[in-house]
Structures are given as C-alpha cells and as structure tokens.
Design goal:
binds 3-methylbut-3-enyl trihydrogen diphosphate; Isoprenyl transferase; Undecaprenyl pyrophosphate synthetase; 6-stranded parallel sheet; binds magnesium ion
Length: 250
Amino acid sequence: MQSFKDKINQDQLPQHVAIIMDGNGRWAKSRGEKRTFGHKHAIKAVREAVNACNEIHIPYLTLYTFSSENWNRPEDEVDTLMSLISETIILEAEEIFSKGLRMHIIGDTEKLPAEVREHMQHLVDITKNNTKGNLILALSYGSQHEILSAVKKISSKVKSGELTEEEINEKVFEDHLYTKDFPPVDLLIRTSGEVRISNFLLWQIAYAELQFLDILWPDFGKEDFFKCIYNYQNKERRFGKTSEQLNENI
Ligand code: IPE
Ligand code: IPE
Ligand code: MG
C-alpha cells in the first residue's frame, strides 16, 4: 500500500504542527494495566511524531506533554510522569542533537522539579545553534495563564511608559507570549477521540486546522502523522475570504 508520505505536497507543508498527546491512561486500562504503563508506552509515539516531522521537514512541532491542570492528578502519577520526562530527555538528547533539532520549552517551568528543569535547560542550551527543525515541549503549560502573564507584562510596560495603549496590537501581544519566536499553529492534532482543546495554545490556534483522531496516543505512528498532513493539504484555508477570491490569486 502506498504511504501517505508519498502523497504529501512538499510545497504546501504546515510550518507549525501542534499535538495534544492524549489517551495514555485509556490505552493502559484497556490492557488491564496501571495508567503509568500507558505513559511509558507513549514515548515510542513521541519518537514517531518527531521522526515523521523531521523526515518531511516541518520546521516547528509543539507537543503538549504536561498541562498546568495535570498537576491536579494523583501524586504518584505526577511523580512517574516527571521521572519519565527526565529520563526520556537524557536518553533522547543525543538523537535530538544529531538530527539537528533545536529544543524549546514553553510553560510555567518554575513549577517543575529541579532535576527536570536542569535536564531540559541542558538540552535547550546544547541545541541552540541547530537549524534543522524546532521541537517545542509544552510542560506545565496552560494557555490562560500564558495570556494573563502577557496582559500583566504589557500593562506594567504601559504603566512605566515603555509602551502606550495605542501601540498595543496583535504583534505586540504575541511578543509577550512564550511562543513569540514561533509561527502560528497551522495544524493541531489531538488523539484519543476527545474533541476539546484543554487549555492549549488558545491564541496561537486562531486559524489552525483541527484534526481529532480516534487513536490512543501510544498507538500513534508515523503513518498517522503523514495522513494528518495529507488531510491538511486537502483543506482550503480561506482566512475569512471566499473560495473564489483564493482561486483568482492562482
Ligand atoms: C495524556 O494521556 C498524557 C497526559 C495528559 C500527561 P492521559 O493520561 O490523559 O490519558 P487518558 O486521557 O486518561 O486516557
Ligand atoms: C491534555 O490532556 C494535556 C496533555 C495531553 C498533556 P488531558 O487528558 O489532561 O485533558 P483533559 O483533562 O481530558 O481535557
Ligand atoms: Mg487525557
């Protein structure tokens, strides 16, 4: 069978893909295992997504790894997740580096255990000159908090006179988000069958194409990713215009 990869048009790739990697707990439960078993098996799917992205040269991939709300899960699950994140970063560091990927972290990282923060920071530092693609991990990330922080930073600049109210526009606002160096999200994928955003990149997905898959995250593979890109390329992104207007420009 032909791979979806061969059907992808290299001239129409999304610049930024974001993934809500959901369904680990259900995947484990369906096998009579504990939720943490699902988190362990999620790592292979992360590798698949990163490799697929790298193979077709999508420059930005953001992975929702741990939300600000996930801190409310049982303590042992949070501990296991933090250890897994830490271990995975150490184990995958060389691979990420050798692929030429640049690592970024977005979120309220102060809340993370020192060990996780240090390993993350190390990977961010050693990959800072890499140019083959950007891998962005959303860790302890909540979009409402990000937006509120931006509002607070901007209002304090207005208060101090560094910025006037008239100067505030979309661009200025974006410059105060964690994602200021990244393009807007073109394609958002969520696995597990849930059709919700769960406080992820609310501003950045304003015009993203959304795809919700009935696959649990540990089962996600490269072919699923390529299929999402293929489906994305078959959408007409109108950005408010009419179909006729878009066709006139060709
Ligand atoms: C996603 O899988 C992983 C994290 C949120 C950290 P879940 O753990 O949410 O799995 P389900 O949704 O309960 O199946
Ligand atoms: C969203 O999944 C967060 C991550 C995938 C990291 P959740 O499983 O936490 O989302 P809700 O709570 O079901 O909306
Ligand atoms: Mg979930």
